[in-house]
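> call design_seq(struct)
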């Protein structure tokens, strides 16, 4: 594989859900290429297909038709084990932080590390490094309930980075925090991108979308525009 392989390459992608007997065309003929190092936002109104697209890119769901390559690999050709493997190469961040309440920030991040071949000492070291990256070294032993919304989301971002993913997928990462705290989260996301992390972020907030380097706008299951910010 060459360095120029896009992280995501989508051709004529369609997703139709069946609601009982009624087909819902969530995505129609989507084409998209995302290169390594990009910071892409996906903007669109409620119901336009943003999460559907993100879930397909994350190999969490299967398209109805069309082609999806992740790191040059055709996802439709993978078996369940291979799908699990490819998902480990992707970092997920959601609107609701989904941290484990009983565990400290440190343990939430460490738990996510795939432990194959990594000693406890190494896991601890990597966890501390990640929490330092997201500015929470002094909060490592706090449980989620002892952290602000923005801090919880930063733990979730550290956790998403635990397995050195090829890219980060974020669905409304600031949707559940106030606008001031949202600012610190978006600054962190920008910092990570400046350090080389590829980011694909879904939002319905135009101001947030503009923080990315590139924005695609989705309406009714179709990409209507693709712009550099
Ligand atoms: N599991 C499902 N079964 C049936 N229809 C679905 C399913 N999931 C989503 N849809 C429909 O597909 C369309 C796209 O939904 P999607 O969740 O991708 O929108 P979205 O852009 O993420 O919206 P929001 O901003 O509200 O999160 C909507 O019309 C939705 O009702
Ligand atoms: Mg959504």
């Amino acid at each position: 594989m060459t360095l120029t392989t896009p992280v995501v390459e989508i051709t004529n992608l369609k997703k139709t859900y069946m609601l009982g007997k009624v087909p819902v065309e969530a995505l129609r003929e989507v084409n998209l290429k995302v290169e390594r190092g990009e910071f892409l936002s996906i903007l669109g109104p409620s119901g336009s297909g943003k999460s559907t697209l993100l879930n397909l890119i994350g190999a969490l769901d299967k398209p109805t038709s069309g082609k999806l390559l992740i790191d040059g690999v055709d996802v439709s050709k993978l078996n369940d084990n291979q799908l699990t493997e490819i998902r480990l190469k992707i970092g997920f961040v959601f609107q609701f932080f989904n941290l484990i309440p009983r565990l400290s920030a440190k343990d939430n991040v460490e738990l996510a590390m795939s432990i194959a071949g990594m000693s406890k000492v190494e896991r601890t070291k990597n966890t501390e490094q990640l929490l330092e990256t997201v500015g929470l070294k002094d909060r490592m032993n706090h449980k989620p309930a002892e952290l602000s919304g923005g801090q919880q989301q930063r733990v979730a971002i550290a956790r998403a980075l635990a397995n050195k993913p090829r890219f980060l997928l974020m669905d409304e990462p600031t949707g559940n925090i106030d606008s001031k705290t949202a600012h610190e989260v978006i600054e962190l996301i920008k910092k990570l991108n400046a350090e080389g992390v590829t980011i694909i972020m879904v939002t319905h907030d135009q101001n947030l979308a503009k923080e990315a380097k590139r924005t695609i706008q989705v309406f009714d299951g179709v990409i209507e525009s693709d712009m550099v910010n």
